[in-house]
């Protein structure tokens, strides 16, 4: 197993500065991680730093709360792709899902999926599992698949908790086999990362990628 290829090397804190982002990219290139995941304002810098490498550039959208309008998320996505993003990690409108307005959530995901796929970019959908019941997870799994997203993702890292193995088990219960799963939030050790991969995750979002690889 190439553990490094499961890792989205992540820096999403609001006070991240250029020197930290440059270091992040150097680490990602050295360890051949799957991607570097950053806030939209840092996509152009990261794309430049990763030029010539096998590491993708990933941008979060609607982060961390998902409360922007669909129009704003679409504009943010278009700009991130223009700046060089290969992957987009969007946050759903959690309140709409909890209200039972799954149609709103599905339409929003579909709008971003259309923009991403037109540029051959992947879309990951952050559903913030810490706020969701099993019924909510079942509903959002259907919405993610119907909308044509590539991945479902557990968490932003800004909720009341990060990923859990129970989340992954529920995703596997309600998703079709071709929808990929990304776990994020609180995964900081090699042991934890391997547990999530064994549970069925295709990608791990973490700021501890180097530590995970080095054991």
TrEMBL record:
The main location is cytoplasm
Q: In which pathway does it act?
A: Carbohydrate degradation; 2-deoxy-D-ribose 1-phosphate degradation; D-glyceraldehyde 3-phosphate and acetaldehyde from 2-deoxy-alpha-D-ribose 1-phosphate: step 2/2
Q: Which GO terms describe its cellular component?
A: cytoplasm
What's its EC?
A: 4.1.2.4
GO MF annotation list: deoxyribose-phosphate aldolase activity
* Recorded superkingdom: Bacteria
- Which SUPFAM superfamilies does this entry report, sorted A to Z? Aldolase
User: Where is the protein found, in the record's own terms?
Assistant: Cytoplasm
Q: Which EC class, in a word?
A: lyase
Active site: residue positions = 89 (proton donor/acceptor), 153 (schiff-base intermediate with acetaldehyde), 182 (proton donor/acceptor)
Q: Name one GO biological process term.
A: 2-deoxyribose 1-phosphate catabolic process
Describe the function of this protein.
Catalyzes a reversible aldol reaction between acetaldehyde and D-glyceraldehyde 3-phosphate to generate 2-deoxy-D-ribose 5-phosphate.
Protein name stated in the entry: Deoxyribose-phosphate aldolase
Q: Which organism is it from?
A: Treponema vincentii
